[in-house]
Amino acid sequence: MQRANPTQRWPAILVILWAAACSTGFGALWVYSNTRGDLGQPTAPWPADQPLTLDDDRPTLVLFAHPKCPCTDATLSQLERLQGRYPDRFGIRVVLYEPEQADLTWRSTRLWRRAQRLSEAAVLADPAGRITAAFGAATSGQTGLFAPSGELLFWGGLTSARGHEGDSLGSDAVAEAVQSGLSRSTNAPVFGCTILGSCSSTAHTSEVTGHDAPCCTG
Question: How does DSSP classify residue 20?
Fold first, then answer.
């Protein structure tokens, strides 16, 4: 019996190695996209002595974000859709973290620009994350929906994965609460970068709860 030439085996071996590498890469991407962020410890009702104000005739939605988190772009898209479906049904406040002595580049990011384009939304810089910490938020994309009384109606994220737009438990819950004042789901997973602290690695311990959370790039 004639032996196979060893060099003939290399294409098959290379195909197997390529398939294994692709599988590993897709698996890592799936894990990254579906790693939940820290929900934090929400303060309810509305915390006192904050620069944010509640609307007195409709719910107020507060979005907490890190301006350099690429995942939160999808959250803003979800918010734009909600605003388009339910115009004038809820107020919007966007709280964007920045370091204590941040330069102006922190307020010129894509997220800042998109937030400022939201209709009738108040966009606030949050030096050192004081507002974020007062409300108990920990992950970029964290959303709180409050009744005019200050009661917390919903706490969580608006996307179903990191950077993913489309149907999600959080968006559905906000829509239901905006329409009826109540929601069957009062929280949902949040997917994004940690807000407070350094962003030099892919994981970071939240300063709010001490739990590990994915970190932003920047």
Answer: H
CA distance 163 to 109: 17
- Is the overall model pTM greater than 0.85, yes or no? no
What would the pLDDT profile of 22-60 be if each residue is shown by its tens digit?
Answer: 444 434 333 444 577 999 989 888 998 899 999 999 999
CATH of 60-214, one of 3.40.109.10, 3.40.30.10, 3.40.50.300, 3.30.70.420: 3.40.30.10
Per-residue exposure over 109-141, b if at least 16 CB sit within 10 Å of its own CB, e if not? bebbebbeebeebbbeebeebebbbbbbbbbbb
Report whether 32 contacts 62 (CB < 8 A). no
Q: b/e string for 66-88 if b means 16 or more Cβ within 10 A?
A: bbbbbbbbbbbbbbeebbeeeee
